[in-house]
């Protein structure tokens, strides 16, 4: 490849083409590959590389705390989960339908693993996801009040294709945070799905959120289009000691 072509490819930001041109051209000459076929192969390599880079970027931005996938989840150990139900959800029809998913169960039963697995599947299929601990989410909400950035925070969170909130029920929250959380779910209602893991059955959310009327309104929106998966099974978290 001459310098002019190298410069053009760099200017056009065709990095994979620039990197693999000589290698693929040599292979094409050896195989007698027609020029149009060669260029098709070259551009396909560029396209695949960009797809992989985009996927890696979406995974980084999702902030998954663990590397769970449906393939790695121990369905045989967790008898409290219906694998067929999870596999059906993994077809991702819940996303365009804006159907929420709430995983309810004790600690260690695999709630986070299932939520991350579905969110990762969404990312692999081109959707944007964000994983966030409930305590971190409520902390960000409270901090936004100080610098008046609540509206910007809500706009950002409301537009994520799949919002995955982990460990709702362990956080300590104030009324202002409950108000903002309600507004977030209201903004996502019928637009984008929200995934939640919690140790609390729905009747206990009132005590956690601290506002009976607001909790009722929040649950009404959350559960209107919702898959509630209660995991009544053993702890599958590896034990040490």
**In what order do the strands lie side by side in the largest sheet?**
2-3-4-1-5
DSSP strand (E) fraction? Answer: 5-15%
The pLDDT mean sits at: 92
Question: Mind describing the biggest β-sheet?
Answer: 5 strands, parallel
Q: How much helix, percentage-wise, in residues? A: 40-55%
Number of helices: 10
Question: In angstroms, what is the radius of gyration?
Answer: 23 Å
Given the C-alpha coordinates, what overall shape results?
elongated
Question: H/E order of the elements?
Answer: HHHHEHEHHEHEHHE
Ends: how far apart?
A: 60 Å
The total count of strands amounts to 5
User: Unreliable segments (pLDDT under 50, ≥5 consecutive)?
Assistant: none
Structural class: alpha/beta
Can you walk through the features of this model?
The protein is an alpha/beta fold and 241 residues long. It has 10 helices and 5 strands; from the N terminus they run ααααβαβααβαβααβ. The protein has a 5-stranded parallel β-sheet with strand order 2-3-4-1-5. Helix 8 links the parallel strand 3 and strand 4 (194-198). The chain is elongated and about 75 Å long. The termini are far apart.
């Amino acid at each position: 490849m001459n310098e002019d072509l190298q410069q053009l490819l760099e200017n056009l930001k065709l990095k994979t083409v620039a990197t693999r041109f000589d290698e693929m051209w040599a292979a094409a000459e050896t195989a007698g590959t027609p020029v149009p076929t060669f260029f098709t192969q070259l551009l396909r390599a560029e396209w695949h590389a960009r797809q992989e880079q985009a996927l890696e970027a979406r995974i980084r931005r999702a902030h998954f705390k663990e590397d769970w996938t449906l393939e790695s989840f121990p369905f045989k150990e967790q008898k409290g989960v219906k694998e067929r139900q999870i596999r059906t959800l993994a077809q991702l029809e819940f996303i365009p339908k804006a159907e929420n998913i709430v995983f309810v169960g004790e600690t260690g039963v695999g709630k986070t693993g299932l939520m991350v697995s579905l969110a990762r599947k969404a990312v692999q299929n081109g959707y944007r996801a964000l994983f966030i601990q409930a305590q971190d989410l409520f902390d960000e909400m409270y901090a936004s009040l100080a610098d008046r950035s609540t509206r910007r925070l809500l706009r950002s969170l409301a537009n994520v294709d799949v919002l995955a909130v982990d460990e709702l029920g362990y956080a300590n929250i104030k009324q202002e945070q409950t108000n903002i959380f309600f507004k977030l779910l209201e903004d996502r209602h019928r637009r984008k799905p929200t995934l939640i893991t919690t140790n609390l059955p729905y009747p206990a959310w009132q005590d956690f959120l601290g506002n009976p009327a607001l909790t009722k309104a929040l649950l009404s929106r959350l559960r209107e289009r919702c898959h509630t998966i209660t995991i009544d099974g053993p702890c599958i978290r590896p034990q040490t000691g």
